[in-house]
């Protein structure tokens, strides 16, 4: 046996000598892995008015000490290869993951032509996500078409999502259905869409602040299906009022439910430039306590 082969065997010999004691000394299985992010929609007024560019928001995300940005794409000036490449370069230079593309796709469509149109939109934004290095695209359930039942609308949404997920999966990208009014106002129908789609490339973009009632309970129901999460400064109470979000309580639910991934702040008031810097430290404290 030469010296190199002998050295290769040393670690294995050491472990064998320790036997069961080594196994017992191993740390318990790690459950929490949360990453703090920001949703570009937070600065929708500034992006729409061009007071801020997406490059500015990427740099701000880094300045806050966050890890990722959900690039709500509504105000992209274009989707040219050169523009997307510049965003990706800016993100890399600032240590930011452009982990998600949030688009205005609405799944529940009453005709084959309208469903095909939404599938085409999914394909478009999946291609954008691929160029940005994103691994998630956010979609909506959409409104329940007039004259149809919730179950009929769910079936339509499932058909659109299945076709979209087939294409997204071929690119290694996951589609997340957000709870955000219409068909997906609450957790139950949103979960039904995900379960009936039955694809490893489809899940729920869980927005903890969007549920109209009993936010924490709705979040707890949704976590097993979540592939991405948004949080807001407020969350609904059981009687439908709004209260300040308890980040520690919320993040405790994420970890207990086995969620791993980004938890991103989406601020929906009008004073984002002044308010967000005061909220981010709370977000970071919760992530460090529950998710690292």
Task: Throw out a few tags for this protein.
TIM Barrel, two-stranded antiparallel sheet, 10 strands, disordered N terminus, 292 residues, alpha/beta, globular, eight-stranded parallel beta barrel
Report on the structure:
The protein is 48% helix and 19% strand. With 292 residues, it is α/β, with parallel strands linked by helices. The chain has an 8-stranded parallel beta barrel, surrounded by 6 helices. α4 packs parallel to α5 and α6 (112-132) runs parallel beside α7. The relative contact order is 0.13.
The largest pleated sheet is described as: 8 strands, parallel, barrel
Question: What distance lies between the first and last C-alpha atoms, to the nearest angstrom?
Answer: 43 Å
Oligomer designation: single chain
Estimate the global geometry from the Cα principal axes: globular
The tally of domains stands at 1
> Helix and strand succession?
HHEHHEHEHEHEHEHEEEHEH
Structural class: alpha/beta
Report low-confidence residues grouped into runs of 5 or more: 1-25
The second-level CATH architecture is: Alpha-Beta Barrel
CATH-assigned homologous superfamily: Divalent-metal-dependent TIM barrel enzymes
Looking at the structure, the CATH topology is TIM Barrel
Task: Tell me the strand order in the biggest sheet.
Answer: 1-2-3-4-5-6-7-10
* Beta content: 15-25%
User: How many β-strands, per DSSP?
Assistant: 10
The level of helicity is 40-55%
Q: Which CATH first-tier class would you pick?
A: Alpha Beta
Task: Quote the average pLDDT.
Answer: 92
How many helices? The count is 11
Gyration radius from CA atoms, angstroms: 22 Å
